[in-house]
């Protein structure tokens, strides 16, 4: 018979058996097209400032997402072959060879790949605007995103489907090279192993889980996060490997065990848990790590919004050039200027090692500034900060090293004003900023100038050596939305003019943080689907192995409602254990991070993500119960 016709008749005869596999290929095509459409969407790329980082991050994230999609397809195919074992056995019974069956399955692969590719790419193209808009909004832009119509996402999507089909074909070749006619009809005949579980280890697992949850609310990120992860992971391993098996075996020893309605599910779990524990343990740990990674990405995004402000207290600051340039910049920011101030400092060149008075010395250049204490306090008032309650004598000075603890020093720091050597006695390093780091439209983290505050008397004497630099600083109404204005203002400045713009690192940081969050969320949803599908297909495979047992129970007079109730209980434990334990571990690991960042409210997003995670597992559970009942009926 023609293979194409035979494959088509097989699909029409039992469409449900084929639909699960077809849906997994459709999801693969849809996600790959959507994901690649974002990277090639012109309207998205127009608003991105760091295009190379954007492309690199999406590519790396795409590789991880695509690997999980292939895993999803492989697991679906494994179940797909299992449910068709009687059909394939019949073909062997009528004289077909293993090679003929492989050709039949490969022909079906081509039909599925073509259909899923066409439908998935069509849906991906339509949804590319939605996902592109979500990414752009996460980055803080208001630009409109168009539907991406391009051949590149389509080709990538079909390429991924072909790669998945190749892996599936290799898997089928390996399986059919060892298959026999008897094994196709008898299925899994392994005698299940019974494990009793250790009571001490069972309760130790519970203790570690509860203790880790309680301790996570008290610990900090920098001290015991690794210990917390190890203790909770050990608790999860013990709970699944010991606590569940011990509890199930404890139930079998109850004097009313044989008259209870859940005896069937208890006996089934007693034999199934040993061969499911490794899988459930890995799914739990991967779920918790995935949830933690997405939560960490959210906190990273929120932190990235805060960090630039600590280093760049002025929305826009530049070395004063002349009044004409000043007028042009005023005109550029017209209507957006909240306040404006000019101040002066003396340019110096450091001669002593930077690390003697500053931390993170590699971030600093040698050209810096000194400012009088009274002028610096006026600048702090302008920025809305408190004055420094300190006094300086002779050549005493304060150094600025933002991001470091304020500490007392006793350092003789040598520098030059022009060609004149001088020495400052640095008595304290402040966690503060005088002048933000040098900004650049392309490279956001320019050199930081080494800056000092000196007494008014010392500054007045130093002015006689010249090298006075005037600065102009602006505080803007909506500083995070001034990138276009800043670019225009910079274009009015002579080349190599020192300027510091808050919006430049803010924009790039938010872009990178939002991209990491977007990719990690995308990956998390695919990961949840793949991990849930792992349990789903594993249990449906076992449903076919249980079919003769359920048939025997019905012949012995077992009530169908009681059998269905036991199916629900049995599958509930196998789905609830990894989902709840994974959620709990992710929560325990996340709490110390949230405690470190007081200003961030991440609970709404984290709750939504956990809701999606539990919803996916719930849908898999309900679907597996329905199909399990159909298989065993």
TrEMBL record:
Residue stretches spanning the membrane: 20-38, 53-75, 110-134, 154-173, 199-218, 224-248, 280-299, 514-537, 571-594, 600-622
A biological process from GO: transmembrane transport
Domain ABC3 transporter permease C-terminal, first and last residues per copy: 62-180
Localization, UniProt: Cell membrane
Entry keyword set: Cell membrane, Membrane, Transmembrane, Transmembrane helix, Transport
GO cellular component: plasma membrane
Keyword Secreted in annotation: no
Topology in the lipid bilayer: Multi-pass membrane protein
InterPro entries per the UniProt record, alphabetical: ABC-4_Integral_Memb_Prot, ABC3_permease_C, ABC_permease_BceB-typ
One matching Pfam family: FtsX
Keyword Nucleotidyltransferase among record annotations: no
Entry protein name: FtsX-like permease family protein
